[in-house]
Structures are given as C-alpha cells and as structure tokens.
Write a structure and sequence with these properties.
Helices cover 40% and strands 14% of the residues. With 749 residues, it is α+β, with helices and mostly antiparallel strands. The chain has a six-stranded antiparallel β-barrel with strand order 1-2-4-5-9-8. Strands 20-19-18-17-21 form a five-stranded antiparallel β-sheet, with no helix packed on it. A four-stranded mixed β-sheet has the order 7-15-14-10. A hairpin with a 4-residue loop joins β1 and β2 (55-65). α12 (375-388) packs parallel to α14 (474-486), α15 (490-500) packs antiparallel against α16 and α21 packs antiparallel against α22. It is globular, with a radius of gyration of 31 Å.
C-alpha cells in the first residue's frame, strides 16, 4: 500500500506521526532507574466503571508495584507501578511475568492511609470508587465541552480501581497512567484551580477556568468540575461540586461554587461558548481589577496555600488541597469578633417571642455602628433592593459594559494562536433548575462575605487603615442576597424580608445598618418567599409566620373594625388570614417531612453496611463466578443477610449474600456512604437561625380554628380546636389544651 503524497496536509500529518513514533521508541523509560521490572508480579482484580451501562465490571490481571510509596500526602500513599495486559490463555504465568516488563506502561497507584498504614476499611474502598466515579463524571462534562469546538480540547485520564486479593484486607488502589513531560508552555504538572477559588498565579490559562464555569451552566447548576490539574489539557484527580453535596467530603456544594465564581473572570472564550455572566458587586470587580494583567483570565489571591504547597511534589499537593477542603466551608480567614451589641442582635434576630414586629425595633439597632456611605453606595443599595423584588434577567453582553451602560474598550493584547475562536455558540439556556442553583450560589456567596471570607474586598480609603473600616463588605453581602432573591431563593427572600422588618439576619450583622425599615417591602418579600416553587419548606414557613404576625400588627395598630377607614394601611380580610394560616401549616408539615427524610438519610449513611430494599437497582456476582450483571432486588431474607436478584438479561433469579451485591450508581448522580444528597445544614454543620418559626404549631391551629368559626365553618373549627388541644397537651401547655378541648366539645354538640 503506497502513501498518498499529493496532499500537503496529509504529508505534514504523516511526518508528525513518524516523528512522534520515533520519539516514543527512543525515549528512555522515566522510571527505568527504579527497576520495577525486577519486583515480583502480583495478581490483582481490576474494577472498571462502564458509564454507558452504569455498572462496574471486573477482570484479573497482574502488576508490579513498589513496596514503599515514593511520596505521600495527608490522606494517600502514592506508588510507582507497571501493568501488563491480561495474559493470553496460551501463555503460562511464568512466561508472561518475564515478558516485556521494561516496556510496560507506567502507572500511579494511590491508596488511602490511616496512621501510616494502608486503609483497608470499606469506607476507604468506597472512597476509591468515588474517586473513579468523579473522574468519569468530569470526563462526561469534558466531552460536552469539546463538542463546542473550543480552541483547546480537554481530556481526563481514565482511572480504575485495583483490588489486591492476596494481601491482608484486600486493599483497593485508584490507578491511572503516569503523566510525564511538559505542555506547549514548557510547564509540567500544574494545578489551574481548586474547589475553593483559583490558585493559578503563574500560568494564566483560560481553558481550565472556562471549562469549570461551562460545567456549571451545562449541568443546569447541579455540577461544577473543579480542582483542574495536569499536564497541558490532560487532567487528573478532579473534584466535582454538586448542588446537594453528593460527591463526598471534597464536595463543598453551592458554597464551593460560590468560591469559584467569586474569582472567575468572564472572558472572550466564555462569551463565545455562550456562558452567561455571573454578576459580581462593584467592590468585587474592583478587587479583581487589582490582579488583572490581561484580558483573558484572573488569578485570585491564595498565597498562603501556594506557599505551603510550593515545596511539595504534585501528589502531596493534591492531598494538601483535599485535606483543606472541608475547613474552607466554615472557617473564614479572620474570625469576626462579637461584642455585646452583636450578641443582642443575634438574640433579637432569632425572635422566639410573639412580640409585635414594630415593637421589635429596640435600641440595639440604633446603637450599632453606622458606617459612612457615599452617594454611589446609597445608589447601589437602592439598585439591590429594587432588584430583589423582580425576576432576574440574563444579559449576554453585560460583562462588556460599564455601570453607565457604556461599552468597555478591551486592552490591546498580543493574539494567542491557541485562543483563536473557531466557533461561536448561542447563549446557554438558563432554565428553572439553573435559576434555583444560581440562587443557592449567590446566597452562599452572601454568607461567605458575612463570615469575612474575603477581607481584601472591603474598600480602604487613602487615609484609612483596616481597623477603620467595616469588618466585612456589607454591600457585597446585599448585592448577592438581592441577586439570590431575584432568582427566588427562599432563604434570601426571608433574610431581606427580616431586614426590612427590622429583625436582622444571621447572614450579616452589618446589613441592618444598610437596609432601611420598610414594612411593605418586607411583606412583599415574605410573600415572594412563600410563593416560590423552589425548596426547602422551612424558610417559607418562617416567612409565613412573620407575614401573619405583621398582618395582625396592622390590625392592632389601627384598632381595626371591618368596613372602617384604615388610612392607607393594608388590612387583610379574615378569609385571607385563614388561607395564609392553612398555607403555613402545610409548609410546617412539609418542613417536618423534609427533616425526617434528612434524618433517615443520615442514619442510612452511618450504617456500617449497605442495607438493600426491594426495587433497588443492583449488580450481582452471577453464580459466584466473579462477573457482575445488572438486575433488580426482588426479595430480602428475614435476617437481611441475603438478597434475591432478578437479572435484566434473561429474567433469571438468584440469591446472594450482601458482599456479592453492589448498588448501581449513575455517573451523574453518585451516592455513596461518603456523600449526599445533603441539605446545607447537614453538610455545613450549622443551622440557619432565620428559619425558626416565631409561632408554635398549636397556636396557629387554635387561631385558624377561631377564624373558621368566625367565617361560619363550625365543623372545620371543631376539628382544628381538637387538633390544637392535642398538640398543646403534647407540648405541656395544659391550660390551652383544656380551653380548646372544651371549645371543640361545645361545637360538636
């Protein structure tokens, strides 16, 4: 067969391929000096994840691996390893072991460790499987990204798990090809970003950052691939952030996504891919501008961590980053000092007594420090509060305009051949699910600012020091809280409604010095919260209780008599009050159901072994031959130690012990004992005190019963008085219980 030498492009391609092949042959094995080929081979079981069928398959092979790790981090040991293919049936093990090991491929094998020893527990094995699934999850979004024909296509190394059955405890290792060499910039292994903001202080690559943002919008805000690291655009060891913390301890959820977007700079590549702009406050943009030295990317500050990892090799640096992930959820760089006024505000903001809302404006509000505000800051407050009352509109060109509307002139920068845009996509669709998750991210970004997570964003005047300014940037808190409310985040609507009502919020102790009292705005926001179709129910129930109390306050303040003039104050009818109380009781019931489901999930997660139930999708070790096939659980033995599976392929049934059955985990819905789905409270270990209801359920039922009676519904009133009596008795309120029980009895006569 002769080569076609008439096509110049084909000639160049053939030349490049020949040069690459010659280089591969001539290059020495970078691990040749370690003489791994002399190490005795071991039999292993390779666990491969099949994303199309969403199952795991197993096969035997042999490897040669060093006995001692060549490096380690806080969580894992790393070993050099060589692997050969499965031996052919015609070869003896002896011949196969001695054949071609010098030319065998190099792999890195990573095992979790505890107390300086390889961890062989089920949790460690689940963690390895979770790492593999994360790699496939990231690969899925990389494929979607590449389909848009970006200037630089990206790939994640295929990973799998190796089980060593002949070692004590049958330890499991995560294995992937060893990446050597450098990229087009002459840079070797490099970390481009983390799940807690950028660390790319030297290379300024665009593609990794844009891919992370792309994965968020393409997944409707349910995923964000972070911890992008590797050689060139071949990546490894990613962390996937989810909207419900389902990907293990490294999944920082919406808070991790917020940390990413706080430093992400929208750029030409993002625009060409149709990625919507993530809005940032004026102070955030000013802080970004300090560190922006080209039009393509932004490097966020993270110097302390970078100083720590500079002396570590790449594998130890990976573990250092993993080990710090959870602390970044909760601990700000500088702790906020609470004085007595702050403590009073915190107590007041919880509001456990049914005092009138208007009377709750105590002297603590007046005594709090008031920071000087410029005209532009007052305009920003007005803009934010107006924004919170209406649905957010997405503008694909917003990032290219100043606040005045004038187009921003781009800097003249040398063109990068690698960044030539070949394809321009339509703006990505922002559906209801994306809006829900964007609202979560903006809310968490407001919370992070309130925790003083970004002290450098607080503006410092020319004649000021850090001690002269506010402990955190209240305007950035308000900006993101308002954007979250415009996206119908129930937590944000509740927080802003509380501020307008003078009750404060747990998000930031400074916001009540910025947000004016406005009872009508508070009512609008509480109604917006209740009417939102998005979960959870707890903030809606709390908003309903506060709105109900405000309606009662309005009646009391006007000495309301039906039909008389109310002098412009909105007085709602008895029917409206009754409907509101019915909605509140339904929301409280939903909240209790959500709480019970969360507690049930926590109990299941903490069980030592997986407990299957009928209908579970699983894979079983068919006939104990080592091959796992998909099926469904049809029965469970009385002692719970055996599971009956009906296989998909032929409908046959088989009973297997628990260790021979595995739950099928979809690649985009990973759930393991390491992860979620979780609520913010479960994941972050903290409670949102804004969401506490100010009225007990039995009181609400008693007051609804009285309204029903007033409206002529005697039968409904009797039933509600009876329910209220029982609830009050269970709460130890015997006087109320007796009173309502008598009323119920009278109405039933």
């Amino acid at each position: 067969m002769t080569e076609d030498t008439t096509n110049p492009a084909r000639k160049r391609l053939i030349k490049i391929l020949k040069e690459c092949a010659a280089k591969v042959v001539s290059d020495e094995d970078p691990w040749g000096k370690y003489e791994i080929e002399k190490i005795p081979a071991e039999r292993v079981i390779r666990h491969l994840y099949q994303p199309l069928t969403k199952t795991w398959t197993m096969e035997e092979t042999i490897v040669k691996m060093e006995n001692e790790p060549f490096t380690h981090g806080a969580m894992r040991f790393c070993y050099r390893m060589k692997k050969m293919a499965t031996p052919p049936a015609s070869s003896s093990n002896h011949r196969f072991h001695s054949h071609g090991w010098k030319k065998a491929l190099n792999y890195v094998s990573k095992a979790y460790q505890v107390d300086g020893k390889i961890d062989t527990s089920e949790d460690a094995k689940n963690a390895v499987r979770n790492d593999i699934l994360l790699q496939y999850e990231a690969s899925h979004w990389a494929k979607e990204f590449n389909d848009h024909d970006p200037p630089k296509k990206i790939n994640f190394i295929r990973a799998y798990a190796l089980e060593f059955p002949e070692r004590e405890g049958s330890p499991m290792f995560a294995v992937e090809r060893f990446i050597s060499g450098t990229d087009a910039y002459g840079v070797g292994f490099f970390k481009h970003n983390t799940n807690a903001g950028f660390v790319d202080e030297d290379l300024h690559r665009v593609t990794p950052q844009v891919f992370s943002a792309y994965s968020f919008y393409e997944s409707s805000g349910t995923r964000l691939v972070a911890d992008i690291q590797g050689v060139g655009d071949l990546y490894t060891d990613p962390q996937v952030l989810s909207n419900d913390y389902r990907f293990g301890d490294g999944d920082l959820g919406p808070r991790g996504m917020a940390l990413f977007f706080e430093t992400f700079r929208h750029n030409t590549l993002a625009e060409s891919l149709g990625i919507p702009v993530f809005p940032l406050s004026k102070n955030e943009l000013k802080h970004q501008a300090k560190y922006e030295d080209d039009v393509y990317s932004l490097s966020g500050e993270n110097s302390s961590f970078m100083d720590m990892v500079k002396g570590l090799d790449k594998f130890a640096a990976m573990d250092a980053n993993r080990n710090r992930r959870q602390s970044l959820l909760i601990v700000p760089p500088l702790q906020i000092n609470q004085d007595d006024d702050d403590a009073n505000t915190e107590t007041r903001s919880n509001m456990t007594k049914r005092d009138q809302i208007r009377k709750s404006l105590t002297s603590t509000r007046i005594s709090k420090p008031v920071f000087a505000r410029s005209g532009s800051e007052m305009d920003e407050v007005k803009y934010c509060l107006d924004l919170a009352k209406k649905d957010f509109k997405f503008d694909s060109k917003a990032f290219g305009r100043k606040a005045s509307g004038e187009m921003i002139k781009r800097k003249a920068t040398p063109a990068r051949p690698s960044l030539m845009i070949r394809h321009v996509s339509e703006m990505m669709v922002v559906n209801d699910e994306t809006k829900l998750n964007l609202g979560k991210v903006h809310y968490q970004l407001a919370v992070l600012h309130g925790m003083n997570r970004f002290p450098d964003v607080v503006p410092v005047g020319p004649d000021e020091t850090k001690a002269d300014v506010a402990p955190h940037d209240a305007f950035s808190v308000l900006f993101h809280l308002s954007h979250a409310a415009s996206l119908k985040s129930v937590a944000a609507c509740l927080a802003l409604g509380r501020l307008h009502a003078g009750l404060g919020t747990s998000v930031s102790e400074l916001l009540d010095t910025v947000v004016p009292i406005d009872f009508d705005a508070a009512k609008d926001l509480f109604r917006r919260c209740i009417e939102s179709k998005y979960p959870p129910a707890a903030p809606k129930a709390a908003a309903g209780c506060l709105l109900y109390q405000m309606y009662l306050d309005d009646r009391e303040s006007q000495d309301y008599v039906e039909g008389e003039d109310t002098f412009g104050v909105e007085i709602v009818s008895d029917i409206t009050l009754a409907h509101l109380l019915e909605d509140i009781l339904k929301l409280i019931e939903e909240t209790n159901k959500e709480t019970a489901e969360a507690a049930q999930h926590t109990n299941v997660k903490e069980e030592a072994a997986r407990q299957f139930k009928v209908g579970d999708r699983v894979e079983g070790n068919f006939a104990m031959e080592g091959s796992f096939y998909p099926g469904e659980v049809t029965a469970i033995s009385e002692d719970g130690k055996e599971v009956e599976i009906c296989y998909d392929d032929d409908g046959s049934k088989e009973s297997l012990t628990l260790e021979n059955v595995r739950l099928i985990i979809p690649p985009t819905a990973t759930q393991t004992v390491m992860g979620g789905p979780l609520s913010d409270e479960e994941a972050l270990g903290s409670e949102n005190t804004d969401e506490k209801c100010v009225v007990e359920t039995y009181e609400l039922k008693g007051e609804l019963a009285a309204l029903k009676l007033k409206l002529g519904s005697k039968e409904a009133a009797a039933a509600l008085f009876e329910e209220a009596s029982n609830d009050a008795m269970n709460a130890g309120k015997m006087k109320k219980a007796s009173e309502w029980s008598l009323k119920a009895a009278e109405l039933m006569e």
